[in-house]
Amino acid sequence: MERQSGWKRKARDEIERIFAFCEGYKRFLDLAKTEREAVRCVETALKEAGFSPDPASGKVYRLNRGKEAIAWRPGTHPASEGVRLIMAHIDAPRLDLKQNPLYEDVDLALLRTHYYGGIKKYHWVAMPLAIHGVIIKEDGTCVEVRIGEDEADPVFAIDDLLPHLSRKHQDEKKVADAIEGEKLTILFGSLPLLGEEQAPVKKHVLKLLKDVYGVTEDDFISAEIEIVPAFKARDVGLDRSMMGAYGQDDRASAYPLLRALCDMEDPTHGVLAIFVDKEEIGSEGNTSAKSRFVEMFLYDVLGASGAAATDGRIHGLDGLDDLVRRALFASKAISADVNGAVNPNWQDVHEKQNACYLGGGVCVTKFTGHGGKVGANDAHAEYVAEIRRLFNKEGIIWQTGELGKIDEGGGGTVAKYLAEYGMDIIDVGVPLLAMHSPFEISNKLDIYETYRAFKAFLAS
After folding, report:
1. Nearest of 416, 330, 436 to residue 365 by alpha carbon
2. H/E element holding 228?
3. Which residue among 78, 231, 352, 373 is the one 20 to 30 A from 191 at the CA level?
C-alpha cells in the first residue's frame, strides 16, 4: 500500500463534516471519563435513537451493572446466518482510591491510590486532577461524586519533588522507578478543624464529606472513586486537525461505534454493539469481554423475537441454545481498539513499513500480542480480504499497522475472547500518539474514518 495523508483525499465540504463530527466526540470525552459515565452517555444516545430495554421492542439495549452496555438491531437475514458484531472498551488507565485511602501527614490530608492499567507513573504528578465515582453506603444508597470538572470546583494534585532535591531520589533512577506507586498520593486538604488536636486536617475533610455528601470514612470501603485528569478535550495544532484528551484509548472507538449504530439504516444482518469494561486489566471480571453477558442478551432478544422457532424450522436447529451458539459461530466481528501511531520523536520503536500513521485513516491490525504473536488473535487472510474489499468499496481511508517492532513490546485486545465463540474477528481502530498518557493525541480524520468504517461494516 502506498502511504499518504488521508487529508489529501478530502474535499472542503467533507473536511467540514469531519470537524463537526469531532465536536460531538469531544463532548463525549468530557462527559465519559469513567466507564460508568460512558455507559450513561451510551444509554442516553440509544434511547434518543429509539432503543429500549424491552427485548421484544426490536431495537434493544441492556446494561450490565452500570459498567457495560450492549445494543441490538435485527436484520432481514435470520440470526442463524450470523450477526455483525463490534466490541469497544470504555475503561481507561487511571488512578483508583484504595479502600482505606484517607490519612494525615505533615499537616496535610492525603488520599492513597492504586493505579489501574498500564500507566507511566511520572505522567500523573504535578497536574490538575479530578475525582469521579460512586460511594455506596452500607444501606445501599449511591452517592455520586464528580469534583474538578466545573470551573468553580477545586482540583486535586500529586506532589512532585523539586529538581533541587531530586538527584538521589529521582534523577539517578530509571524513569519507571522515579515515581513509586505508593507515592501517587492525592493532596486533599490542609485546613484543620478548630478545637481538634489529633489529625485535625483529616477530621476537617471528613466533616466536609459528611456535610456535603452524607458519607463517612467507613463508606470508602464500598466506593469506586477514580482519579482522572481535570482538563477537557482540546483541539491540537494551529490547523485544529488533531485532538488531545484523556481516555481516547478506547473511547476513540466507542463514540464512532455508538454513532454508527444510531445513524445506520436497517441492517441486512442482525447487529450487536458492545461497550465493555476492564480491558485495561486483561478483561477480567463480569463486566468485561470474558463475561457471558452477550450470550444472556442474545437468549433474551432471540427468544422474545421467536427466532428459535422460525430459524429452527428453516435451518433444522434445535432450540434457543443451538441458535445462539450457531449465530455467534457464524458472525463477523471487529475488535474496536486503538493502535500506536508512529511517534515523530521515537520513530525507531516502529517498523515503519508496517506501522500506522496519524492522519492515515482507520487502522486495520491483523494481529496483536507480543513477541511471536503470543496472546494474539491472528485474523485469517480470507477475513482480511473481506475487510479490504468492504472498505475499498465504500471509499474508506484505511491503513494497516502493527504495535511497534517485534521485540519492542506489543499489546492485546478483546479479540481473542470473542474468537472463542468461533466467529471471524479483526482489530480495527484509531491510531494514537501518547497512548495511555493523560493527554492522548488523535487525528480528526482518523476518528471520522473509523465511524465510516464501523457504519459500513454493520450494514454489510
Report:
1. 416
2. strand 223-229
3. 231
Query: Burial level of 167, CB count in 10 A (0-12/13-18/19+)?
Result: exposed
Beta bridge partners, 175, equal none
Question: Please, what's the largest Cα pairwise distance for the chain?
Answer: 80
Q: Which three cell numbers stand for residue 394?
A: 465504500
Calpha distance 262→136 (Å, rounded):
33
Identity at 322, one-letter amino acid code: D
Taking a C-beta distance cutoff of 8 angstroms, is the pair 401, 339 a contact?
A: yes
Residues 280-291: pLDDT tens digits? 999 999 999 999
Predicted structure pTM score:
0.95
- CA–CA gap between residue 444 and residue 286 (Å, rounded): 33
Backbone angles phi, psi at 160, to 5 degrees: -115, 165
Sorted by where each starts, the structural domains of the chain and their CATH numbers stand as: 6-92+246-459 (3.40.630.10), 94-229 (2.30.250.10)
Amino acid occupying residue 24 = G
Cell numbers 482540583 label which residue?
155
Nearest CA among 224, 278, 248 for reference residue 91 = 278
Question: Side chain identity at 460, as an amino acid letter?
Answer: S
- pLDDT tens per residue, range 65-113: 999 999 999 999 999 999 999 999 999 999 999 999 999 999 999 999 9
Distance set, CA 121 to CA 66, 242, 308, 438 (Å): 28, 25, 51, 10
Tell me the C-alpha distance between 38 and 260, whole Å: 16
Q: Mark out the alpha helices in 34-112 (DSSP H runs).
A: 35-48
Q: Provide the sign of the torsion angle of the four alpha carbons 260, 266, 267, 272, taken in this order.
A: positive
Give whole-number Cα distances, 382 to 275, 298, 366, 386, 426, in Å. 27, 27, 11, 6, 11
Helix, strand, coil shares, percent, the chain, to 5: 35, 25, 40
Centroid of chain to Cα 373:
23
